């Protein structure tokens, strides 16, 4: 099962969203986006564990967090668009 990544255009947007998830008890990490996503205007991402993905998506949408897209991050290195 994949982990999930929410992409952001700025570190400030990612940090604000991280704080929202922290207050809701969802473990998360801010990372630089992989090179394959940089061309899409996504410089940073918040990564959450597989079982937290749907809940994190719901919370971030409720707070109108400015994420660009959601991706599934597979253990073998694949990255695919995800619909949560």
Can you describe this structure?
By secondary structure, the protein is of the alpha+beta class. Strand 4 (70-73) and strand 5 form a beta hairpin. A five-stranded antiparallel β-sheet has the order 2-3-1-4-5. The chain has three helices and five strands; from the N terminus they run E-H-E-H-E-H-E-E. It has one domain: Alpha-Beta Plaits (2-Layer Sandwich), CATH 3.30.70.
CATH fold annotation: Alpha-Beta Plaits
CATH superfamily: Hypothetical protein rpa1041
Helix content: 25-40%
Structural class: alpha+beta
Record the strand order, biggest sheet. Answer: 2-3-1-4-5
The count of helical stretches stands at 3
Strand content: 25-35%
CATH class descriptor name: Alpha Beta
Name the descriptors.
84 residues, five-stranded antiparallel sheet, single chain, 5 strands, alpha+beta, 3 helices, Alpha-Beta Plaits
Layout of helices and strands, plus pairs?
Elements: E1 3-8, H1 11-23, E2 28-32, H2 35-38, E3 44-48, H3 53-62, E4 70-73, E5 79-81
Antiparallel strand pairs: 1-3, 1-4, 2-3, 4-5
Quick synopsis:
By secondary structure, this protein is of the alpha+beta class. 32% of the residues lie in helices and 27% in strands.
């Amino acid at each position: 099962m994949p982990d999930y990544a929410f992409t952001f255009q700025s570190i400030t947007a990612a940090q604000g969203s991280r704080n929202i998830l922290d207050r809701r008890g969802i473990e998360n990490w801010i990372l630089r986006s992989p090179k394959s996503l940089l061309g899409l205007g996504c410089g940073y991402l918040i990564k959450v564990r597989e079982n937290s993905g749907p809940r994190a998506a719901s919370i971030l949408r409720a707070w109108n967090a400015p994420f660009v897209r959601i991706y599934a991050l597979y253990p073998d290195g694949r990255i695919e668009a995800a619909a949560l």
